[in-house]
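Batch manifest, entry 17 of 40.
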Amino acid sequence: MRILSAAALAVVLSMGAALAEGASALRALDTAFDSRGWEGVGRLELGRTGFCTGALIEPDVVLTAAHCLFDPDTRERIKDNEIEFLAGWRNGRAAAYRNVVRSVIHPGYVYLGPEGADYVAEDVALLALNQPIQTNSVKPFRTDRRPLKGDEVGVVSYARDRASRPSLQEVCHVLGRPMGSLVLSCDVDFGSSGAPIFVMSEGEPRIVSVVSAKAEIRGREVSLGSGLDGSLLQLRTLLEAEEPVRATSGPRVRRLDIQSRRTSGGATYHRP
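Output type: structure tokens
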């Protein structure tokens, strides 16, 4: 089991304090002009448990966090036909609506409930959509290698206080790379789980991680990102091997899942 200890995170944070101070503010993507190029990021409606953030990496495949696919109350997997991807969701409308027909999570991931920061590196999942999204405005994102400590990254996410439109943080930083994961200065909150972490490469944003959790250490907030190196090829193979199941109904979202917290050794962990 891979667990990021409070002591390890404290060391990472103390070494990256200057980088954390250099992060830019969140900017709401309120208009079509603001959102241009980011429509491949969308809201994942998760049955009756709330929502997460996801990103299109192929016309019919969405990348998100594995823990998003579990009901935090029952700890059971949410049925695929209760999940819907709302590409570019903004102010009550999406650029495309698609149901999920099958999903796979990282084979090494174990869901232990909404608390803690266990299995961050393996907190990755892929979702197959019932139809490809083939519109001019919604384009899949390419992926790239895990960034190095000190690298600039960005994040596009939804959250409980900005559920109606995405927000962009253009600059945050990699504070550390413990155990195949990332510790980041990015601003995330409940609902941001699964949000894509980007680097700019050759003039385009590429996904290098997804938001797994956030932590508070000695009064300073950081976010934790899962690792993609080696995971995506494995997950794509698993997704292609799965028998397709046709979605029969859309999801029903009743509440935003604001999950509990656990304090251990001076660090407080949250699943966004």
